[in-house]
């Protein structure tokens, strides 16, 4: 298998470190808009760099990406950029006749009149409407294959297959107790993406009613996370699992709640109230005359790059799927989860916990595709494929998952 | 009297509208960095524009300001720019041999080791250290002559002269119930200045101890404001009165508390936590390549210009001085205040309440200087001069003050 990895940021760099230890692929081309980032990721692999090549590419340039896939005879494109680049990369992979994996789906667009009641363009809609093309081509577009979405969807499918006869609710619940020394406020994941997913209208699925939206930060609940993380305030946010799970798993309700904590929620609300989440440019006096800049980019520029904070970070991050339903006529409630301790991921891989946890899952998925354990064509979510091999291989990677009966 | 007004923003424009109705001066030159702003202020006066001329000047260019004062044979410079330009304008007026008035004093610089315990360079220090030069020249630099500082200092002197034998505390208390239609968050005054005064270490004066600083937003108290505004949460902020009052009024303690309200305090804390109050530039991708911009300028650019919000604004703003002490052997507590209703200031002057309330006071002061009722030389605060004529003339301007015995 020959892989084109696009994006050598925090997650992309962690992917190279995880993949370098696995023999399943022949070559990985690591491409980034900034060639120095791609080269740094490859150089950091040291003696393991043989199977890796650094390259430069503009992820928004479909033709350039298609040409790069052809030039390196790649079988698959792994997208590790931010969600703005999902569509051009998805399209380029189709044009080149390769498989495609991403960790976030094409962006949503709120309902023009009732943004907090009805869905408009949903996450992934632009990808699913082209499922036929992928099926006809006999190629697999495996979408939402990070940790959340990704592993969380695998958990949902595992619960449906192995643990329940009927499912009342699949609720993804994400929480952490990470702190960063020396910073009052230091998000552990891309603030651009966090603002995007937290301020968009949250989406909920209910059988019979379909998908609908709510006000931001709705239905707060305190969820008790395992392995010492403890209780964290969680709220509804827009996330891919809610769009993916109902397509392949029979559940009466699907939700995603993010353990943002009160403090982070207030920060996001304030950014929104002041218009600092905006992605359209404003004019300000710059050092070399008037400049047009996007306020959200300025917010990101004022905060430390989360991928560089691993050394100052402490604590654990937990991704997981809470499922409520019945088995053999009795009520059952479980939480299937995956915890990464920052100290472990820094020691083992030099990658901070949140970034590493996102990165390991697409590598596991690629290994299953390479071995043939996972195969298919069309646009598929992780819950469309058998969960057993995935969960076993994840454990083999040294990062086991857990289950708590509630 | 011939006046050079520098700054044709919200306050400067309101000054022209108030002054246009008063015959005490011969001519006012209205100068701004942006000539269109100066011209718009003069043009808006319509038939009353005869005594006004628009001009362009860079307030940071001392030589240009001195030349403009000479060219128009001005007797006085009235500074209506933001506090960054206090020193060049103060220096230019001295060089030209004119009097000088401002509404905010030269900026402070925190103590390098103990910013939240000790003062460093205090507000106005750079002006007071040149008091001798002004005295020798026989010219008056009347500093802090807006509403707060300004009218609040006049109130303090009035209390000392007429209402108290001994003063325990002079506490300036500022509060409002203003709302702006159509905006979740719309400060009624320059956000640049508000951030500056609220995030700098607040300064407090105590007889025997002198000036010292505290943590931001310290000593919260709920103060009940008059004329229907009601209770508002007030906290210590850095303000000129604390530096001015003790120089001329005998008081055991002097404080300034701003009725920011909890919501505004949280917004300011969040901006600080995220580094968005910074005035040093960060690099972001701009529309025409990388741009270096100051985060605080981007915050200001995202918010509506407060001077333009009068039409959508409702409510009243209150500036005042609470004084506690003894008179004839008995304890006494009063609040001397000045309230402006936005509906009134918009109807009468087309200026929003906060801006109008700031603007009226320097015009009253200039009229007292023109008539000889106020005279002096050196660098003086408003409390250095007799309060009676000022308070009477303010009432004659149609904007009476009030007093509440507590």
UniProtKB/TrEMBL annotation, chains A, B:
Q: Name one GO molecular function term.
A: ATP binding
Q: Give the matching InterPro entries.
A: NAD(P)-bd_dom_sf, Sacchrp_dh-like_C, Sacchrp_dh_NADP-bd
| Saccharopine dehydrogenase-like C-terminal domain mapped to chain residues | 146-398
Cited Gene3D superfamilies: Dihydrodipicolinate Reductase, domain 2 (3.30.360.10), NAD(P)-binding Rossmann-like Domain (3.40.50.720)
Q: Which residues form a coiled coil?
A: none
Ordered alphabetically, the record's keywords are: ATP-binding, Nucleotide-binding
Saccharopine dehydrogenase NADP binding domain span = 3-141
Protein name as catalogued: ATP-binding protein
Q: Which organism is it from?
A: Wenjunlia tyrosinilytica
Taxonomy, top ranks, is: Bacteria, Bacillati, Actinomycetota, Actinomycetes, Kitasatosporales
